[in-house]
Amino acid sequence: MEKILIVDDEAFIRENLERILADDGYRPFSTDSSEEAVRRVSEEEIDLVLLDLNLGHRSGLDVLRELREVDPEVLVIIITGYGTVESAVEALKLGAYDYIKKPFKADAIHLIVKLALETQNLRREVRHLKREGSAQFGETDMIGSSPQLLQVFHQIQEVAKHEHATVLITGESGTGKELVARAIHQLSSRKERPFVEINCGSLPFNLLETELFGHERGAFTDAKNRKIGLIEESNGGTVFLDEIGEMGLNLQVKLLRVLEDRKIRRLGGVRNIDIDVRVIAATNRDLKQAIDDREFREDLYYRLNVFPIHMPPLRERREDIPQLLDHFFKRFSREFNKAIRDVSRPAIDLLMRYHWPGNVRELRNVVERICIMHNAEVITPEMLPREIWGGPPRREVPFSFEIPPEGIVVEEIINQVEKDLISKALAITGGNVAKTSRLLNLPRGTLRYKLEKYQLAEQED
């Protein structure tokens, strides 16, 4: 319910406006004191102020300046009498939203207040979008049909139905934990409200505290204006706490209180503020081990772990790799205006065998790099980064061999190892002799001799 403050020195005006606004479902309250108005705006979240320009002993323009100083985001509608329109225009220059002239009709109040509150909501949404940065909804699609990912899809759909359920998403870096959080929000009844994300590992304690909870004017040396925290900004929506395992113990206590009481208090504030948010947390740490190490509170862990979702690493759902490749190659081909239309079978085989320590994020980056560097219609193995097909030649002996009591024939062993290495290199290069010779650091003539010796197939250069 939106809170509207009426500031006027005429009791009849105040009572009339309170009745009109209450009938519309708002929460109005009033005062004839400019000092009281400034105090309430500085201490409370006021959605709209109706301010009379002529308060008797004080100019409404002076009060408007003070209100804007304590809360630059507050919306103010000026109430002006006949003959003071010029002052109302001056108020608009100082940041007032609009003005209404006395005597006013109820219909005019209904309309201007409705438009002002819609504007306030739009401003908040813009701030939320700015905080989310350059994230695009198209990038958040989770791609795949493996049993592991289908299980995650099912969990998302189920928990999205319960708008107050707290979710803890676990998984390695790059698996897509943020995508899960956004999907839960988009499928929930909160989807029209803000989705606010903060990385708990990117800020020191004091900055993270004020980012989450906000602060009052004068709470500390540089607090020249009141700041609304991210949890308060996400009211009605979802707050996503990424890397929750990096949050300090002192702040963990405050977060626990928020989850239990559904209230926050700004830094330097004296009153609690009711909030209605869904909290989704994510971590790539083992929180149970962090509890044993006394780096994470056990009570907070169980309060967050109401509905756990685990994102599997890409190496455990390799069957999703072809779909991911198709998705990313199409996307970056369009973005970079390239003609790439397919990935060769040998290249796919290499990409399927790679262990992907950076998970889907690494795969995305690899595809983007290939699309920047190449413009061929078909992606072949030699276009892949070196780490995908084995990296630089190893200098150490890649295997150990026990000599049996009966002895060995060294030449036979060497020939077999050499044949196996050449076979693997041919598989990587698709049978291309020139590329295989570079891969093995063998002269092309020597390689051809060994291909004939071991009766191995080759392709034309």
From TrEMBL:
Keywords: Activator, ATP-binding, Cytoplasm, DNA-binding, Nucleotide-binding, Phosphoprotein, Transcription, Transcription regulation, Two-component regulatory system. It is found in: Cytoplasm. Its main location: cytoplasm. PROSITE patterns: RESPONSE_REGULATORY (PS50110), SIGMA54_INTERACT_1 (PS00675), SIGMA54_INTERACT_2 (PS00676), SIGMA54_INTERACT_3 (PS00688), SIGMA54_INTERACT_4 (PS50045). Residues 3-117 form the Response regulatory domain. The modification 4-aspartylphosphate is found at D52. InterPro entries: AAA+_ATPase (IPR003593), AAA_lid_NorR (IPR058031), CheY-like_superfamily (IPR011006), Homeodomain-like_sf (IPR009057), HTH_Fis (IPR002197), P-loop_NTPase (IPR027417), Sig_transdc_resp-reg_receiver (IPR001789), Sigma_54_int (IPR002078). Residues 142-372 form the Sigma-54 factor interaction domain. GO terms for biological process: phosphorelay signal transduction system; regulation of DNA-templated transcription. Pfam families: AAA_lid_14, HTH_8, Response_reg, Sigma54_activat. This is Fis family transcriptional regulator. It comes from Geoalkalibacter subterraneus. The lineage of its organism: Bacteria, Pseudomonadati, Thermodesulfobacteriota, Desulfuromonadia, Desulfuromonadales.
